[in-house]
Amino acid sequence: MLGFWDACQDYNIDCKFFVDSGSDDAAYLMAGDKAIAYGSSGLVGASYLQYFSVNLAAKKLGIPAVGFHGNLAGFTEEEKAEAGLIAWVAPAAIQYGGAVAQAIFDKAGCVSPVIVTQSSFNIAEDSANKGFHDKWVSLCPESEILETQQEGLEPVAAMAKISAILTANPDLKAAFGTTGGSINAWGKAMQQ
Questions:
Q1: Is the peptide bond before 113 cis (omega within 30 degrees of 0)?
Q2: Distance (Å, rounded) from C-alpha 169 to C-alpha 137?
Q3: Concatenated DSSP letters for 119-162?
Protein backbone atom coordinates (compact mmCIF):
# COMPACT_ATOMS: atom_id res chain seq x y z
CA MET A 1 0.00 0.00 0.00
CA LEU A 2 2.84 2.37 0.79
CA GLY A 3 4.49 1.75 -2.57
CA PHE A 4 1.18 2.37 -4.31
CA TRP A 5 0.69 5.61 -2.36
CA ASP A 6 4.24 6.77 -3.15
CA ALA A 7 3.62 6.16 -6.86
CA CYS A 8 0.36 8.12 -6.67
CA GLN A 9 2.30 11.05 -5.21
CA ASP A 10 5.16 10.72 -7.71
CA TYR A 11 2.76 10.77 -10.68
CA ASN A 12 0.39 13.32 -9.09
CA ILE A 13 -2.56 10.94 -9.31
CA ASP A 14 -5.61 11.23 -7.05
CA CYS A 15 -5.69 7.88 -5.26
CA LYS A 16 -8.01 6.54 -2.60
CA PHE A 17 -7.77 3.46 -0.40
CA PHE A 18 -10.80 1.27 0.17
CA VAL A 19 -9.68 -1.04 2.95
CA ASP A 20 -11.96 -2.72 5.46
CA SER A 21 -10.83 -3.53 8.98
CA GLY A 22 -10.82 -7.30 8.49
CA SER A 23 -8.39 -9.30 6.43
CA ASP A 24 -10.79 -12.05 5.48
CA ASP A 25 -12.25 -12.67 2.03
CA ALA A 26 -15.57 -10.94 2.83
CA ALA A 27 -13.80 -7.75 3.94
CA TYR A 28 -11.66 -7.72 0.81
CA LEU A 29 -14.66 -8.26 -1.46
CA MET A 30 -16.55 -5.48 0.31
CA ALA A 31 -13.63 -3.07 -0.13
CA GLY A 32 -13.50 -3.91 -3.85
CA ASP A 33 -17.22 -3.35 -4.22
CA LYS A 34 -16.85 0.05 -2.52
CA ALA A 35 -14.05 1.03 -4.90
CA ILE A 36 -16.20 0.09 -7.90
CA ALA A 37 -19.26 1.93 -6.51
CA TYR A 38 -17.07 5.00 -5.94
CA GLY A 39 -16.44 5.12 -9.69
CA SER A 40 -12.73 4.47 -9.58
CA SER A 41 -10.82 4.81 -12.84
CA GLY A 42 -8.62 1.86 -11.93
CA LEU A 43 -8.43 -0.84 -9.29
CA VAL A 44 -5.61 -2.65 -7.58
CA GLY A 45 -7.29 -6.02 -7.17
CA ALA A 46 -5.93 -9.42 -6.26
CA SER A 47 -4.69 -12.38 -8.20
CA TYR A 48 -6.29 -15.04 -6.03
CA LEU A 49 -9.25 -16.99 -7.37
CA GLN A 50 -11.64 -15.98 -4.60
CA TYR A 51 -11.24 -12.32 -5.62
CA PHE A 52 -11.79 -12.66 -9.36
CA SER A 53 -15.45 -11.57 -8.99
CA VAL A 54 -14.37 -8.04 -7.98
CA ASN A 55 -11.94 -7.82 -10.87
CA LEU A 56 -14.58 -9.03 -13.33
CA ALA A 57 -17.18 -6.59 -11.97
CA ALA A 58 -14.69 -3.75 -12.50
CA LYS A 59 -13.87 -5.01 -15.99
CA LYS A 60 -17.56 -5.00 -16.98
CA LEU A 61 -17.69 -1.29 -16.09
CA GLY A 62 -14.51 -0.52 -18.03
CA ILE A 63 -12.39 -0.17 -14.89
CA PRO A 64 -8.98 -1.81 -15.43
CA ALA A 65 -7.79 -4.00 -12.57
CA VAL A 66 -4.22 -4.95 -11.77
CA GLY A 67 -3.63 -7.83 -9.39
CA PHE A 68 -1.11 -8.09 -6.62
CA HIS A 69 0.45 -10.84 -4.55
CA GLY A 70 -0.49 -13.90 -6.62
CA ASN A 71 1.47 -14.85 -9.70
CA LEU A 72 -0.57 -15.86 -12.77
CA ALA A 73 2.46 -16.93 -14.80
CA GLY A 74 1.33 -20.56 -14.81
CA PHE A 75 -2.23 -19.73 -15.91
CA THR A 76 -3.53 -20.33 -19.43
CA GLU A 77 -4.71 -17.33 -21.44
CA GLU A 78 -8.31 -18.34 -20.74
CA GLU A 79 -7.64 -18.50 -17.00
CA LYS A 80 -5.95 -15.09 -17.11
CA ALA A 81 -9.02 -13.66 -18.86
CA GLU A 82 -11.24 -15.17 -16.15
CA ALA A 83 -9.16 -13.30 -13.57
CA GLY A 84 -10.40 -9.98 -14.98
CA LEU A 85 -6.94 -8.43 -14.74
CA ILE A 86 -5.00 -6.43 -17.29
CA ALA A 87 -1.77 -7.26 -15.43
CA TRP A 88 -0.46 -8.51 -12.11
CA VAL A 89 2.49 -7.78 -9.93
CA ALA A 90 3.87 -10.58 -7.80
CA PRO A 91 6.74 -10.47 -5.34
CA ALA A 92 9.80 -12.60 -5.83
CA ALA A 93 8.60 -14.78 -2.97
CA ILE A 94 11.36 -17.39 -3.10
CA GLN A 95 13.92 -14.60 -3.06
CA TYR A 96 12.43 -12.74 -0.09
CA GLY A 97 11.96 -16.01 1.83
CA GLY A 98 15.66 -16.62 1.37
CA ALA A 99 16.43 -13.07 2.45
CA VAL A 100 14.51 -13.64 5.68
CA ALA A 101 16.57 -16.77 6.40
CA GLN A 102 19.74 -14.78 5.74
CA ALA A 103 18.58 -11.96 8.03
CA ILE A 104 17.85 -14.38 10.88
CA PHE A 105 21.24 -16.03 10.37
CA ASP A 106 23.01 -12.65 10.31
CA LYS A 107 21.33 -11.60 13.56
CA ALA A 108 21.19 -14.85 15.52
CA GLY A 109 23.38 -17.43 13.79
CA CYS A 110 22.34 -21.07 13.40
CA VAL A 111 19.62 -21.18 16.00
CA SER A 112 17.27 -24.10 16.43
CA PRO A 113 14.41 -24.76 16.24
CA VAL A 114 12.85 -22.30 13.80
CA ILE A 115 9.36 -22.26 12.26
CA VAL A 116 7.43 -20.81 9.32
CA THR A 117 3.78 -19.82 9.63
CA GLN A 118 1.46 -18.89 6.77
CA SER A 119 -2.05 -17.47 6.50
CA SER A 120 -2.89 -20.43 4.27
CA PHE A 121 -1.18 -22.67 1.78
CA ASN A 122 -1.12 -20.64 -1.45
CA ILE A 123 1.30 -19.91 -4.29
CA ALA A 124 2.88 -16.78 -2.83
CA GLU A 125 3.31 -17.97 0.74
CA ASP A 126 4.34 -21.49 -0.28
CA SER A 127 7.08 -19.93 -2.43
CA ALA A 128 8.30 -17.69 0.40
CA ASN A 129 8.33 -20.73 2.67
CA LYS A 130 10.36 -22.69 0.11
CA GLY A 131 12.86 -19.83 -0.24
CA PHE A 132 13.26 -19.72 3.53
CA HIS A 133 13.67 -23.48 3.86
CA ASP A 134 16.18 -23.75 1.01
CA LYS A 135 18.33 -20.90 2.31
CA TRP A 136 18.10 -21.92 5.97
CA VAL A 137 19.12 -25.49 5.21
CA SER A 138 22.09 -24.23 3.20
CA LEU A 139 23.16 -21.94 6.07
CA CYS A 140 22.31 -24.19 9.01
CA PRO A 141 22.01 -27.81 7.92
CA GLU A 142 21.88 -29.07 11.51
CA SER A 143 19.10 -26.69 12.58
CA GLU A 144 15.58 -28.05 13.06
CA ILE A 145 12.78 -26.44 11.07
CA LEU A 146 9.46 -27.27 12.70
CA GLU A 147 6.45 -28.21 10.58
CA THR A 148 4.84 -25.19 8.90
CA GLN A 149 1.66 -24.03 10.62
CA GLN A 150 -1.30 -22.04 9.30
CA GLU A 151 -2.22 -18.87 11.18
CA GLY A 152 -5.30 -18.06 9.16
CA LEU A 153 -6.39 -14.50 8.50
CA GLU A 154 -8.54 -13.74 11.54
CA PRO A 155 -6.30 -11.78 13.96
CA VAL A 156 -7.56 -13.16 17.28
CA ALA A 157 -7.51 -16.75 16.03
CA ALA A 158 -4.01 -16.21 14.60
CA MET A 159 -2.75 -14.91 17.96
CA ALA A 160 -4.23 -17.96 19.67
CA LYS A 161 -2.48 -20.28 17.20
CA ILE A 162 0.84 -18.50 17.68
CA SER A 163 0.39 -18.65 21.46
CA ALA A 164 -0.17 -22.41 21.16
CA ILE A 165 2.99 -22.74 19.03
CA LEU A 166 5.00 -20.81 21.63
CA THR A 167 3.56 -22.87 24.48
CA ALA A 168 4.26 -26.17 22.70
CA ASN A 169 7.79 -25.05 21.69
CA PRO A 170 9.25 -22.99 24.57
CA ASP A 171 12.72 -23.39 23.05
CA LEU A 172 11.71 -21.80 19.71
CA LYS A 173 14.46 -19.46 18.58
CA ALA A 174 13.12 -17.81 15.39
CA ALA A 175 10.02 -17.59 13.25
CA PHE A 176 9.13 -16.38 9.77
CA GLY A 177 5.49 -15.44 9.24
CA THR A 178 4.85 -15.25 5.50
CA THR A 179 1.65 -13.20 5.78
CA GLY A 180 1.14 -9.55 6.66
CA GLY A 181 -0.89 -10.54 9.72
CA SER A 182 2.09 -12.38 11.19
CA ILE A 183 3.59 -9.21 12.61
CA ASN A 184 0.51 -8.62 14.73
CA ALA A 185 -0.09 -12.30 15.57
CA TRP A 186 3.49 -13.03 16.65
CA GLY A 187 3.98 -9.68 18.41
CA LYS A 188 0.77 -9.88 20.43
CA ALA A 189 1.22 -13.57 21.25
CA MET A 190 4.75 -12.93 22.54
CA GLN A 191 3.51 -9.98 24.63
CA GLN A 192 0.88 -12.22 26.20
A1: yes
A2: 20
A3: SSS-HHHHHHHHHHHHHHHHH-TTS-BPPPEE--S-HHHHHHHH
Q: What is the dihedral of CA 141, 142, 147, 152, to 10 degrees?
A: -70
Rounded Cα gap, residues 187 and 91, in angstroms: 24
Across-strand partners of 88? 67
C-beta separation of 110 from 142 below 8 A: yes
Cα gap 131→189, rounded to integer Å = 25
Predicted confidence (pLDDT) at residue 151 exceeds the cutoff of 90: yes
Measure CA of the first residue to CA of the last residue in the chain; give whole Å: 29
Stated pTM of the model? 0.73
- The residue count of the chain comes to 192
Strand residues in the chain grouped as ranges (E): 43-46, 65-68, 87-89, 114-118, 149-150, 174-177
Residue type at position 94 = I
What pLDDT score was predicted for residue 122? 78
Q: How far apart are CA 114 and CA 136, in angstroms?
A: 9
Higher pLDDT, 64 or 82: 64
d(CA 135, CA 102) in angstroms, rounded, equals: 7
